[in-house]
Amino acid sequence: MTPIILVDDQPIANFITKKLLEIEGYKDNVKDYTDALIALELAKSESEAIIFLDLNMPIMSGWDFLEEMKKLGLSHKTIILSSSTSKLDIEKAKQYSCVVEYIVKPLNKIKLSKISPYLKTG
Amino acid sequence: MSPIQNNASQLYRITYEAYSKFANGINRCSNFQEIGKVAEKHLKYIFNFHVIKLIIEKDNKFMEYSLCGNNIWFGQKSLADLNKEELNLFKTGIPIRTAHIPENIAQGKLDISKLKNPYLWSWLFNKDDHKMIVSLVADEERVFNSRDIEILKLAADCFDAKFKELNLKREIAKKNRILQGALTTIQNKNEEIYKINRNQKETIKKRTEEIVKKNEKLLKISVLNAHNIKEPLSRIQGIIELFDLMDDESCRQELLPRLKSSVNEMDEIVREVIDMASRELIELKVKIDDPNHFSR
């Protein structure tokens, strides 16, 4: 199964996503990180991955993460998972070709079902 | 051919020719000195005199204008400078013809004792808004008689009109100077007002800029605060979503502690937001109460 990488500086946020994925049957291929730098290292080593990415993080933000991926030529399907409802953020995220979806927190079953095609094909 | 003195019509013609030269000359004068020169040159051809003196009264002010040979003198006089006959003439208006001539009539420029049987003639002419006394001294060598009074009146009118004109010009010049002074004052005041206005505009601009900056800062803070609150709130909402999907035991063990910690975190952030807003409000109130704040 395609590895799923969760990146959020809040452990509880990662926990929620992980639980929802677990309920949907994705468990062993899910890894979560509160440090975007370490998550980036893993993303580099994977040929294919699905990334759930928070935007507002200290040290390395979601934007920094996207820029690094772009530089490295990584095209992992990325789902932005942020509490920001700002149109500016949504528009900016769409500029990145790897971003397939922008979900406003909280994540729930219905929102997750929308992106399930990416999880299955991946 | 009869002597010219006996030919009345010829005499009148010469007299009027002389008068018209005098009148033309007076007309062209632009100051009192010029009037003096014209009078000295032409007046003697109109009628005979040793000394002629004009006193013009207006609003209790007197101006004297005298001519004796080549001597001309004029100037301001007060009531005290007038002699008894002149004062009397002003009161009664009755013309004077007398052999009793005041010693100082020509201010020492004429020796009356050398004259042959001299007479002093004086008339008062009432003009619209002022009075004029004309006095002259004549004798047997320079004969003045009552036939000359009419032409003397004309000459006096001519003098009077010119004096009036020159005085008017003087007054206008004086008023113009006053107006010019007022204009300068107005211009200075206008400049002051302009400067004050400019300062006011600058102050308003400065204040507006300050307020705009402050507003921008407050808006940014409010957006940032909303984001900071929304983050733990969305976590709480996420946990609540999970409650429906998990069994009671798991909920109690896994969700409840996380829910508590998220709620506490949100409480702390809300508290911080309130504290910060209160500090801003207090600071703003201090600035509003301080009248010198904006002029600094």
Secondary-structure topology with pairs:
The complex is a heterodimer of chains A (122) and B (296).
Chain A: E1 4-7, H1 11-24, E2 30-33, H2 36-45, E3 50-53, H3 62-72, E4 77-82, H4 87-94, E5 99-104, H5 109-121
Parallel strand pairs in A: 1-2, 1-3, 3-4, 4-5
Helix pairs in contact in A: 2-3
Chain B: H1 8-28, H2 32-42, E1 51-58, E2 61-68, E3 71-77, H3 84-92, E4 96-98, E5 119-126, E6 131-138, H4 149-243, H5 248-289
Antiparallel strand pairs in B: 1-2, 1-6, 2-3, 4-5, 5-6
Helix pairs in contact in B: 1-2, 1-4, 4-5
Label the overall shape of chain A: globular
CATH topology of the largest domain in chain B: Beta-Lactamase
**What is the overall pLDDT average of chain B?**
88
Give the termini distance of chain A in whole angstroms.
7 Å
Work out the oligomeric state of the chains in this entry. heterodimer
Tell me the CATH superfamily of chain A. Response regulator
Structural class of the secondary elements of chain B? alpha+beta
CATH class of chain A: Alpha Beta
Shape of chain B: rod-shaped
CA-atom Rg of chain B in angstroms: 51 Å
CATH class identity of the largest domain in chain B: Alpha Beta
- Helix share, percent of chain B: 55-70%
**If you average the pLDDT of chain A, what whole number results?**
93
